[in-house]
Amino acid sequence: MGSGELIIVNHSYPPRMVGNVMAFTISGIYMVWVHVIYFVDSFWVYPILGNLGLIPRFLFCGAIVGFYQVLYLIGRVVNSKVHSNRLDLLSMHLILITFKLGVSNIGTVIVY
To answer: Where on the phi/psi map is residue 53: left (φ > 0), alpha (ψ -120 to 50), or beta?
Structure first.
């Protein structure tokens, strides 16, 4: 996701627990898939995994899953911070338009 998309699109997230479980599951499945590729083709997607023993490889995969969780949480927090004042800015814009046009009653306006 680029920073432009983050500013333009207000992403809706599932409840926190559901989102964390989904992020954990997806990243876990990905790490399993990396191992399936190795067992089928004898090719490591990440060459460092071929140099690691079983326990360090397990820790590396755990670190990748943890890093994915951190990225998910950062995206969630940044999205909420960027779009927290969106409605306030929209309301101020509508008030300015109303003031400039001299319209006293503009009714209900929904802009997204």
So the answer is: beta
Distance of CA 107 to the CA centre of its chain: 36
| Burial of 61 per CB tally in 10 Å (0-12, 13-18, 19+) | buried
d(CA 87, CA 112): 10
Residues 23, 72: contact at Cβ < 8 Å? yes
The answer to whether residues 45 and 37 touch, using CB atoms and an 8 Å cutoff, is: yes
- Indicate if the alpha-carbon torsion angle 91, 73, 71, 25 is positive or negative: negative
56-102 per-position pLDDT tens digit: 999 999 999 999 999 888 888 887 777 776 555 555 555 555 555 55
Residue with tokens 């969630």: 76
Half-sphere exposure of 36 (CA within 13 A, CB side): 6
